[in-house]
C-alpha cells in the first residue's frame, strides 16, 4: 500500500470518527430536549463531514447487510427478520424507526458504532425506500436483497412500477455474483426481475388457491407481461396484481417459490402478512437459522408500531392498521370486513410522508366497507375528501352505514371509542403521518 493510499485511508477513518462523534452528540441533544427520535438529522449532518459514511460503515458489518425494499411490508418484514436473527444470538443494526432514506440508514448504522466509528454487529437489516434502491446498492453492497412488491404509492413522488423495476434490475445485475436476491414470485415485475439476474435468486410466494380473491380489484398496477407487454392470464389473484399468472403470448410465467407457503404459519392478521412472513423466512433459512427458532419467533411476534398493532385504551381494544396506498388500504379493509367488529376510524392526511396527492383513495374498494354497515368515523387533514369517497360508495347500495365526520383527530378518536362496544375492537386505518398522530394521542394519555 503506497503512502498516498495509506494517507487517504487514515483521513477517511479520521473523518468517519469525527462524523460519528458529532452525530451522537446531535442525537443526545435532540432526544434530551424531547425534539424527536433523532432518526434522520444525525445522518444528514454526518454525511456532510464524511460523504462515504454509508460505504465505510457497511463495510464493517461482519456477516453482511440485508436490504429490504418494496412498497408495502418493509417495516414488518424487517422487524420479523431482525427478531429471528436476534433469537439466534446475532447482534443486529436495524433502522427500526422506519427512516428508510439515506440519512436514516446512516443514522441507524451510527447508532451501533462507537465514538471513533467502529461498528461491531453481525448483520445490518435496513429497510429501504424503493426509489433510492439504485443509489444505495453500490456503497452498501448488500449480502441479501429482499424485493417484497411494487405498487403505486405516492403519486407525486414516484413513477410507474415498471420504471422502478427496470432501475432495480440495471443496478442489481452489476452487483457481485455472491449477492442473493429474494423477489416476490407472485409479483409479475419482480418475478421477471429475478429471472433476468445473474446472481443467486430465491423466490417467495403463495401456493394457496383457496385464498384467491373473487375478482381482480381496481387497485392493480401490473397485469401486463413485463417481457412482451401482452395481458397476463391469471389463474387467480391473492391481492392486487399478486397471484398465479402466465403470458399466453410469450410463455412468461410465475417463478417457482423456494418454500411451500402452506407449511408456514403467518404473523399477525391479513394475507399481506403471509407475504411478509414468507420473505423473512426465506432469508433466515438462507442464512442458516434454525427452523425451530424461526417458528418460535413467528408464534410470538409482536407488531411494529402502527402495523396491525393492538392496544387497550380505556378498556377498549384498538387495532391500528397503516393504510397509505390503494393496495394496502384494500387489504386493511378486508381485515375489517372479515371481522365481526362494527366501528372503524379512517384518518387521511396529505403531508410529505403520506404523499400530497390523495386521488389514490378513488382506487380503494371503500364500497365493501360501506356495504357492511356499522359506524365509520373519518378525520385527518383531508377529512372531507375521505367522507366524499364514502358517500359515493353508497350509490346504489343498501347500506346501514353511520358516517361521522370530525375534523379534530382527538375528538374523532373519542367518538370512535364511544361507539365501539366493549366486546369489539376499534379498527383505525390511518395514513403514515396520521398513524404517528393517532399513536401519540392513544399512548400519551387516556382521552376519555
TrEMBL record:
**One Pfam family from the UniProt entry?**
Mur_ligase_M
Q: Which PROSITE patterns match?
A: FOLYLPOLYGLU_SYNT_1 (PS01011)
Q: Name one GO molecular function term.
A: zinc ion binding
EC top class named in words: ligase
Look up keyword Zinc and say if it applies.
yes
Q: What is its EC number?
A: 6.3.5.13
Please name the pathway: Cell wall biogenesis; peptidoglycan biosynthesis
Say which domain of life the source belongs to: Bacteria
Question: SUPFAM superfamilies in the record, alphabetically?
Answer: MurD-like peptide ligases, catalytic domain (SSF53623)
| Residue ranges constituting the Mur ligase central domain according to the UniProt record | 68-212
The UniProt keyword set, sorted, is:
ATP-binding, Cell shape, Cell wall biogenesis/degradation, Ligase, Metal-binding, Nucleotide-binding, Peptidoglycan synthesis, Zinc
UniProt-annotated binding residues for Zn(2+): 225, 228, 247, 250
Reaction(s) catalysed (UniProt annotation)? beta-D-GlcNAc-(1->4)-Mur2Ac(oyl-L-Ala-gamma-D-O-P-Glu-L-Lys-D-Ala-D-Ala)-di-trans,octa-cis-undecaprenyl diphosphate + NH4(+) = beta-D-GlcNAc-(1->4)-Mur2Ac(oyl-L-Ala-D-isoglutaminyl-L-Lys-D-Ala-D-Ala)-di-trans,octa-cis-undecaprenyl diphosphate + phosphate + H(+); beta-D-GlcNAc-(1->4)-Mur2Ac(oyl-L-Ala-gamma-D-Glu-L-Lys-D-Ala-D-Ala)-di-trans,octa-cis-undecaprenyl diphosphate + ATP = beta-D-GlcNAc-(1->4)-Mur2Ac(oyl-L-Ala-gamma-D-O-P-Glu-L-Lys-D-Ala-D-Ala)-di-trans,octa-cis-undecaprenyl diphosphate + ADP; beta-D-GlcNAc-(1->4)-Mur2Ac(oyl-L-Ala-gamma-D-Glu-L-Lys-D-Ala-D-Ala)-di-trans,octa-cis-undecaprenyl diphosphate + L-glutamine + ATP + H2O = beta-D-GlcNAc-(1->4)-Mur2Ac(oyl-L-Ala-D-isoglutaminyl-L-Lys-D-Ala-D-Ala)-di-trans,octa-cis-undecaprenyl diphosphate + L-glutamate + ADP + phosphate + H(+)
Q: Where is the active site?
A: 357
Q: Which family does it belong to?
A: Belongs to the MurCDEF family. MurT subfamily.
The cross-references to PANTHER family, in alphabetical order and at most eight, read:
LIPID II ISOGLUTAMINYL SYNTHASE (GLUTAMINE-HYDROLYZING) SUBUNIT MURT, MUR LIGASE FAMILY MEMBER
Q: How does it assemble?
A: Forms a heterodimer with GatD.
Q: What is the name attached to this protein's record?
A: Lipid II isoglutaminyl synthase (glutamine-hydrolyzing) subunit MurT
